[in-house]
Amino acid sequence: MRLRSAAALLLILLLIMAVGADWIAPHPYQQQNRDEARQSPGASHWLGSDDLGRDLWSRLLYGTRVSLLLAAAAALLATLIAAAAGVTAAYCGGCTDRLLMSVTDLFLSVPWLFLLLTARALLPLNTPPWESVAITFLLLGLFGWAGAARLVRAAARARLASPFALQAHAAGVSPARLLAFHLLPNLAPVLEAQFLLALPAFLLGEANLGMLGLGVSEPLPSWGNLLVGLTTPGAVAESPWLIAPSVVVLVSLLAMHELCGRSRKSI
Amino acid sequence: MRKVPLLAPALCALLVAAPRGGELHLCLRGDPKSLDPLMVTDEPSEVIRYLTSGVLLRLNRRTQQIEPELASAWKVDDAGRRITFRLRPNVRFSDGTPFDAADVEYTLKRLADPVLAPPAGEVFRTAAKIQRFRRPNPLEISLEFAAPVSALELLFDEVPLLSSRSPVKEKAVLGPFRLAQYRRGVSLRLERNPNYWKLDSSATRLPYLDAIVLEIQLNRDIELTRFRRGELQLISNLDADNFDRLRRQAPGEAVDAGASLESEMLWFNQSTAAPIAEYRKAWFRSQAFRRAISEAISRKDIVRLVFRGLAVEASGPFSPAAKFWYNSRLSPPEQDTDSARRRLAAGGFRWRDGYLLDPGGRAVEFSLITNSGNRNRARIAALVQEDLAKLGVKVNVTALDFPALIERLNHTHDYEACLLSLSGIDLDPNDQMNVWLSSSSHHPWNPRQAKPATPWEADIDRLMREQAASYDPQVRRGAIGRLQEIVREQAPVIFLVHPHALMAVGSAVHGLEPSSLKPRLLWNAERLYLEQPVAGKR
User: Fold this and answer.
1) Residue B210: domain span
2) Nearest residue of A to residue B306 by CA position?
3) Which contacts qualify for B458-463: CB closer than 8 Å, 24 or more apart?
């Protein structure tokens, strides 16, 4: 319980950092102080500065906002789609079930990274950075629901076959009421677990895209493009503070994992 | 850091007999696509061709002068329509077959063969068609061309000579090394050619090395790690970040050969086929707009921050590395935001709330595409974005994976501005014909024009054709000099910087004469030697 509280506290802290970046960050994230490039941590730059003289602490704060908030939004979207697809398939059964599960299998079998690359290449070029990052996460959400949908369907089927659902049916409860008041509340722990599982997956997905140079576009920071600095061999040994974004990613993923584990147990 | 003129070891090699033996280990970026020297299209195959093939004339990569190789002397007549080679006597291929003028004729006829169409012989099927061969004796051959050929001697630096009589065909080589073993995806082992003709000053037969082992390694980081562990002795191409780290950790192993021929450049899409709004095309076609953008960018900051000082600011398409062609009268544009503002104001642009508006009152904003995964280019884009923001121009940077980028550049033309490099080019300007001719499919800003869209593009076409049709180096230099002036005046392509040619050389390797021209470290491979050669060390 103590560990779960610590994990929740940590995530809340990260959330506060993300939301309050405008007040906490000592410099604008895009401001290039070209005469202060590649500085070690100090009074003016707590985490040092990057190749273009941008303050890394400020970029980490804004990057946390971008990655954490949008990954959460993408995870929510994926969970909602999974819930809709899973519950519909379980409730309707028959052809609808087969059709929806075929579509789910199709999404599971497509290599999502290549699909993302293709989708990104087809987007309009003149997209401002904030819109481009929102689109990236929207795509992550749209492509990342399939695994969860199968689980939701299985859970929904089990709930629909349980005595309380049969009694509600026998009492003449309408399908809408059955879904809204009987099924969905009982599926909440499953959906919560799926959301918490999707969140780190999308964070890592964005980080992967960032490492490939295809994530969030300049000058906007994200956890993904802040990790690019670590791809050069010897960079960490030379400038250990560059590891800060990866520590934040790791710690937040561990916290989410802890919350996920508890959610799974509660199911 | 090791300074470029590594002549001291080279002189030592002349005065003190260099130790023979040892294996040199380095990496290739991939498997060679062909081991037939005439069918070379990729860099790994080119390295192997360079190390194994003999040529009539050689471009000295340091002096940039043509030097005799298998031709001991040559003479150009008739204003570049005829060249006569005097061949070295007693030269044999690696299998013992003698070499003479019949082999030169055989090779050139194969290169010109339209059915075989070897990539290495394209020039002999187009601009330099040989009309007649004359072989007055086995050691002399004269070639007559249909028209004067520019850079005639330079052509023969890339003609790998084949044997017309050897039973092993193209496996019989005249270069310092011959292929001994090829393990696909792993390595190639080139061993000393026992019949190589060249001797050093103490009459020792070259090459000094027993073998060169070329290991296939795509990952540059692994290559550097292996170099640091002493498993590799040479890296012929390092990026500025790794070079900077290496020169701080092992200064003697970092070699900077100065500016390379490559350029980082930016251009605007002026193609009539581009699916972009006409008012935007009007910006991109405005000389005032292009020059203002050029002036607003700080090339100094790109050199300092992106390349860690390991690049030179560009004034045009030719880098100072192209000693003969570089127009030294043109200095790189200094960042001058005020001058850029004046140009834009003169072009009808104005400002409101700090944002630049075109004559029609629309905010000036454009997208800049570049290839993903290139950190330097991402940094340049960020600097350009910030510099242009000072001018009130909003730039949206989009990184695309390479196939998607090429699709937009060459097929759909659906982009506004592009940041890319001009790389893989040769010393001679003829190599850039496809960049500058308005009819070319690789003409960056407006490809495949039926006729030049502007008078200055017509001038560029004329100058390129003029220099390509002349043998006279001064006429050619004049035309290329003027071309550079036009590119500077019109800024259809905004040249930013020329990165340095950066390499890593193990302390045990001697005899090197690093050059910014390819193959940077191996062009005099026959004279390389190891301090303490250990045969079959690995």
Assistant:
1) 1-53+175-233+506-538
2) A51
3) B459/B486, B460/B436, B460/B486, B460/B487, B461/B436, B461/B437
